[in-house]
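Progress narrative, work stream C.
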Amino acid sequence: MQFHFTKNGFDKATLPPDLFGSIQAYYYNNRHNAVHEEWDAKGLYVNYWESQPGFIPMAWGRKTAWQERLRKLVEEWAGGISLERTDIYGLRVYYHGSRLLQHVDRESTHAASLIINIAQHEPREQWPVEIYDFDDRLHNVTMKPGDIVYYESARCLHGRMTPFDGAAYVNLFAHYRPTGDPDWYKRPNPEQGPRGCYFGECADNPLPSLAEPAYTIHGPQDLMAYWRKGRPGQNATVSGRPEFQRDTNRECPYWASIGECDVNPEYMRTGCAGSCGYSDWAKRVAFDAGDTDALVVAGTDEL
């Protein structure tokens, strides 16, 4: 693939306040309507078997209006090229332990794309999107609600290989391609287009998000080996399964002190795992922003 729109393949910006307000309001008004996202025949690039994402459907007219407004932002980032809408996806809710395998997107529809972070609930550490630029440099791009990451998603490897350490992380995705040209990726780069950074050409162009590679991949077998092992961390085992050791109710320490861990183990081993010292694999299946009493935790059998 020769065609590209930008020098590095990605960038970071902030969503206009009025547009972010509209999307965020929709999320908060519909956050309790999340359903399990179906993954049949979608592949393995999201670890749904360990932490199944939630999905909040969007009204057709509303999401079309959002995508059209976002198109103008993506066109400006891509150097003024005319783009057409191909897909808008979300709102996707990632839960504790979620990871995304490094991948590229479909060539015909995902030429110029963006990620919008809508909300983060109880994050205990940053969950960066890991993007390789055209010079094969790894960037750990952190986000906060209202941030945009533009990226050439059919060209740049991207993912989130580190397990998410928190309750929930909500994103919206939108994708575009050159107007009327589904075969854009088969064409040479236009002469007036930007010159991309390849093979060390941009060594003098450091970016704030540049990171030392945390792992070295020599082929698909290495990638899958790393994916299966996971990256050990505060709440992740070497097998990639999260160890959920947090309380979900502020009364947990008191209940534990009066012996409820033994009297009522069915609830306490998941709902008050921190106070009772349990480390069972569990995940949140519902949440209420800012209200820890409303969090519901369900234990999950070992797969």
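Work stream C, second folded protein:
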Amino acid sequence: MRRVAHVTASLLVCCSHVFGQAKVNTRAEAEYYVDAYAEHYDVPPELVRAVIAQESGWNPQAVSYKGAKGLMQLMPKTAIAYSVSDPFDISQNISGGVRYLADLIQQFHGDWRLVLAAYNCGSKWILAKGLNYQNPAVFQYVAAIRRLYIGEVAKTMELTEKKELPDISASDEQKKETKEDTK
């Protein structure tokens, strides 16, 4: 399934450049880069999708009142630190955001509460206070990402379960033959 999504997204991106038209489907392009960068940096793609949904609602042109930009709402200093020259470029933004998440996961030893809190308000505050950080907005943010992540995992599980698997069960006729052979 992922390979099909990768190929589909790649074709959409390539075709849009070849014909000089606006990109046909930015969500498909974003999904492609989410899967590619998440796999490359060993970050769960469901987590990346949850962050994007919370941060920008999948709007690649989103700008926050604090100046965060793009799908993953990178602050200017974070964008510079992760070599993102155009935060509105889908590939660059997701690449920088996923690398930032990967670094935070390493920095906070995989404690996603701290990782997400740091992604939201900066690692300086979380390094200083850890789980004693008392900002209600950050708690709400972490809880929102957790809910979105659980939803994304459920979608992934549904897609996995819906894949067509070859029918390896014996036909009714074969079952009858097997029963007769054992008599």
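Residues 1-22, 165-171 have pLDDT under 50 and may be disordered. No further action is required on this item.
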